[in-house]
Give the backbone structure.
Amino acid sequence: MKSILGQCDYEWDRESLDPKSVRVALLADAIDEVEGNRSLLVGLDITCAREALTQFPRLAAGLESIRGSFIENAPGFCVIDGSWTALLTDEERSALYLLCIEAFGRTLSQNAAGDHIVEVFDRGQPFSAGGRYHQTNASGVLHSDSPQWPVVPDYVALLCVRTAEQGGESKFISAYSVLERVRREHPGLVDELSQPFLFDKRGDFAAGEAPVTAAPIVTTVDGQLHFRYLRSYIDSGHRLSDVPLTDGQTAALDALDGVLSREDLVVSLRMEPGDMQVLNNHFVVHDRWPFIDHDEPERRRLMLRAWLQRR
């Protein structure tokens, strides 16, 4: 594990990473290609998006360049400017989102119902009443998406449809930076994080499946950090399985939470309608700031989320 830490490009924080550097724009030829083929966006759905993408080679090439430069390598995330999509209809913009996510990878089911695209908006159900993070207006905790599944998404792609009246900015932290601080301040605890923990599937599993997934928080794949984390899922997973956390595991989790709470590590970005946020789910930890929504239902904050696997 020590061999992958200390990689300066990946260990960014609020002081070292300029938010403007991760705002990227498609090249003009890709934009012209989309604007010249708007008719191909009409009626497009997720089942035919991959085939339709072949009609947009410049768009696909531009997104592949972004994937290689920003997502697979440091810093591990970006926001793709969508201001130019203001002239598109809502249907066309949603179809463009489907094309873009197909360029990045294969969509994964996000729940037992098999949904591949999930709407993220405040449904008025707080955490205390059983609401899920993406169904509230609250800030959650810094986490990786879907840590409770045996195979986690490689990327998370979020389309901004509408913004809140106040707040709701995205928060990003480098897992490399987090673990390097844990390693320096709590020698030996990173190794504890490399042992299996039990993640609660939150009741979202098929008949005959185990209610928890056993997996380490920290591992490496092909020399790259893979980090999965959501503390509450671990605590409930161990309670559900009647397997108490050891003193060493608890100390490691507490140390990790302590570092994750440091705001000097957080880079914040505000998305505008049409913007698309893409992050590497293996080494970029994320959350959002709480938000206050508009009174009018048709103006309330709405994001579309996809989980993607590399092709």
